[in-house]
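Section 4.2 – Deliverable D4.2 (structural model, holo form)

The reporting period included a commitment to supply a predicted holo structure for the target in complex with zinc ion. Inputs used:
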Amino acid sequence: MRTGIFYYYQKGERLRDFPPALEGILEKENVFFYDAFYPSKPPSTFEVEAISFEMLYQVHSHELVEEVIQTGNFEGALFSATGTVRAAEKIWLEEIDNAFVFTGYGDHHAGTIFFGGGCYFNGAAIAIGMLRKRFGVKKFAILDTDAHHGDGTWEIFEEDPDVLYVCVCPEPYWEKNNKVNIQVPHRVMDEEYLAIVRNEFPRVRTFQPEILFWNWGYDGTRGDYGDMGLTPDFHILLAKELKGMANRISRGRFIIVLCGGSKRDLATYLIPKLIDVISGK
Ligand SMILES: [Zn+2]
Ligand SMILES: [Zn+2]
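Output (structure tokens):
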């Protein structure tokens, strides 16, 4: 498996140890590091070109894009979504098989005309639009294990049966057009949560997606802002299961998109381990 890491330079605390914390991983022969050119950073590398406004407008309204510009976080939002889109593109161009995308602002609360909760653009949704238009890809699955409900992703794909969205969160069970909300308790043990996700594997298998996106938030880890009682190592176990599932159902095409979570020590501990899992030891 060839793994792409999509990275851009950003403000904030949680990813401050990166990219140095990827030492030992970047040296692996099957790992490729895609660094974003970023207007506020000297153009030493020029690997990841920002996505166009046209691509943003395939998912988001012109008004939403304008509002994001007004927040002053447009650049970070744009490159967060860009990483996911370029990861999907490079998977279809067969440069890589799977990917980890660093984001400053993650996806799932960004809808067609609204944004919130630290999400401005929905990178997975934009990537799906690109894969449809450019490569004729038909079926997609998104698994969301952030501690909060992915209202943006749900809204964007609500009427679209070709996108299977499985959102695991404390909100009640609800199902519509291959959008499924799977309820987990507010306090949950690792094994219990893993069993809940495993229980959805047959659904994903039956659907036969050509690619699996994982909206991975670690905010439900003990001590973080969405604390559900999960241990840090829960995420590594889940990553192993999902990688195995992607290998079986979507030819290994698998993109991890960083969503919620604020703690720097958790990011520094978990992200290298997750990349290790998807790239193989
Ligand atoms: Zn969250
Ligand atoms: Zn949900």
